[in-house]
Structures are given as C-alpha cells and as structure tokens.
Amino acid sequence: MASQAREEESDDGMDEFMEKFKKVKYQNAFSESNWEEEFDKVPMFMKSAPEDIDPVKHPDLACLQSIIHDDERPPEEQAKSLKDEGNEYFKEKKYQKAIVSYTAGLKKNSADSDLNAILYTNRAAAHFHLGNMRSSLNDATAARKLKPGHLKAINRGAQCCMELHNYADALLWCDEGLRVQPTDKKLQELRATADKQKRAAERDARRAKTKEKKQQNQRGALLAAIKERGIKLLKPEATRHRDSENEHEDGDKGSTAAMEKLSLDGLGSQEATGAQVYLDDQGTLHWPVLFLYPEHRQTDFISAFCENSSFIDHIAVMFGEELPPWDTDKKYQPQNLQLFFEDHKKGHLYEVTLETSLLDVLKHPGCFVKEGSPSFIILVKGSSFCRQFLSGKKVHRLK
User: Fold this and answer.
1) Per the count of CB atoms within 10 A, which of 22, 35, 275, 374 is most buried?
2) Is NAD a UniProt keyword of this protein (predicted)?
3) 29: containing domain
C-alpha cells in the first residue's frame, strides 16, 4: 500500500509538472526565430567545428577537447581520440589540420601497432591531397612496415609512385597488394597503367639517348672539320674571363682545358641568330653569316653560307635588280662595294675581294668567328662615309 501511495504521489507530481509546463514557457528553450542557429551550437548536432574553441562561447566543446587531450588517459586512448579528430578535419577537407592531429596521435607512442598504422595511412592520405607526394609515400611506407599487407597503405604508396613518375616502384607496390588481394580492381587498373607508363618512359629514354649520341657524333665531326681547316672560334667574353681564371689557378692543365673549350663555346650562334654552322653529308661546312652596313645602320643575314661559295655569289643576289629600300641613292651595287672583316684580337681591318671564297677568309690568321657567325662590313667604295670610317684604322688587303 505504501509503494502504491508513493507511485500515486509521483504520478501526481508529474501531472502537476506537465500542467505547469503547458502554462509557463521553459526559460532555456530554443527561440522559434533562430532555433537552427541555437541547434548548431550543440556539439552532437554541429555541422562543423569552429576554427578556435573559446571556452566561454563553447564550454561543451572545450570540455570535449580537454577529454581528447587529457594526458592522464592511456596513450592508446589519446591516440585514438586524435585519430578521430583528424578524421573529422579530413572529412571537412581541412587536410593541414588533419595532419597536425594525426601527427599528435603518433607522438603518443601508442603500443597499438595497428592504430599507428592507421594514423600513418590517414596522414599519407592528407599529404596526398595537399600534393606532398614524398611525405605521403614515406607515411605509406611506415604504415606498411607496421602492418604488412595493409591494402590502404599499399594503394596509397602505388598512387604516390605514379604521381612521382616512378613507375617501376609503382609496379612493386601493386604486385605486393595483389599478392594480398588478387582481385582488387583498383590495384589491377593501377598496375596496368604503371606498366604502360613504364614502357613508354623506357622507350622515350632510349630515343633520347640515341638522339643525344647522334648529336654528340655530329658535334664531334663538326668540331673536327673546323679544327682541320684551322678556323678560329672566339668564345664569349664571360667564358674567356672564366677560363683565364682557371688557367691562372691550374697552370698548364687549365690552359689545355681552355683551348679545348674554345671550340665548344664558339659555336653558340643559335641564340643570337637562330642558326648554327653545320656539316653536310658531303663534308662541307655551311655558316650563318652577318653583313653590316654601318652607313645606314642596317644588316643582312645569310643562314647557310657554303664555305666554297664566293661573296659575289650572294652580293649579286642581294644587290641585283632590286636594291634595298634604305639605299635611296642607289649606291649599293656590286661593282661599287668593298668588303672588310675585323681582326678582333688586334682591331685591324682586312679588305676582301668579292671573288674570294668564305673558306679562304675563315682560314686567314686574322679572322676570328665570333659567337658562331662570321661578320663582314660592306662600304660604298670612295664614298665620304667610307673615307671617314676607314680613317685612323689600319687596313690590310687579304692576300
């Protein structure tokens, strides 16, 4: 009877409470106008955690965070909580923060190797999404070491190798994973792609090696032909200065190296003119040649001047029926022209007859090919500019 009385008393109290609840509004109830905003403040129902957890604004979250980072708990529990925290950041695509959480979990030195393997694997995924392929590969390797046969880590390692264009290692990762799970479609597809890319890379490497060897042979033959003719190449000023320093430091050894490098550096005309001397199948050299007209500050360029051709062969075409527009006085006709080259060592000028071949000029002791392109000055014979230009200069006639 006493028990029944207590139950009835309790029922009466609940009825009274419910009646009061109908009449008096609950003071801490959600507002009808902003209930969604208030709802989002409850940790269980939050769509995303705030960037900074203020204990005053978010006491519940601060409490949860203190539980996660409670150093009095076992390392395994702390590491698991940090793993979960990292996973939440990962879901929100906050990969950098996820990495921080996973790293903090690993620093707990948990004795649970499986948990540590998961932390490494998850951190590898975060690094992968940030484009940190080396770091991702290192983490995948660490996870595999802790947990051999861990497919997620193996998949990630294979993907990293593919991104790093290391197709041989990607195949090794794939083969390891397929030994664990032979029917894994992702690994099968990844392996097929890695094998295809590896074959293509090897083919391209062979082609590049063959091309490089061919170019080296052509360059060697070209330099041999230039040296055989006794043609002197003048290297750029910066290179000459550098080699003079080497000669000073190394003595005779440096001098020998400088002479060998002279021929190599002197062929750098392609950057300046877009053309370079070449040796044809018949063993004949073809040079890019520059003509200078100082009176009018004009130039002409012949990309492939055969060494056996004479200057008149080209000048007759350049100043034939159609004269250049800048020659308003019609003075630049073959019979009126004089051709000179400069000795870049002594500063002297040498006059060349137009019937002379390019090879005869290039073999002359005073002729130096600068930056891979022989250059020649053309003046109108007997003109006032010609006399003024030649005044004070030492002029030799090519023999």
Assistant:
1) 374
2) no
3) 2-44
Domain assignment present for 20: yes
State whether 254 and 183 are in the same domain: no
pLDDT tens digits along 215-274: 899 889 999 999 999 999 887 654 444 545 554 444 444 433 333 333 445 555 444 557
**Same domain, yes or no: 147 and 257:** no
pTM, two decimal places: 0.53
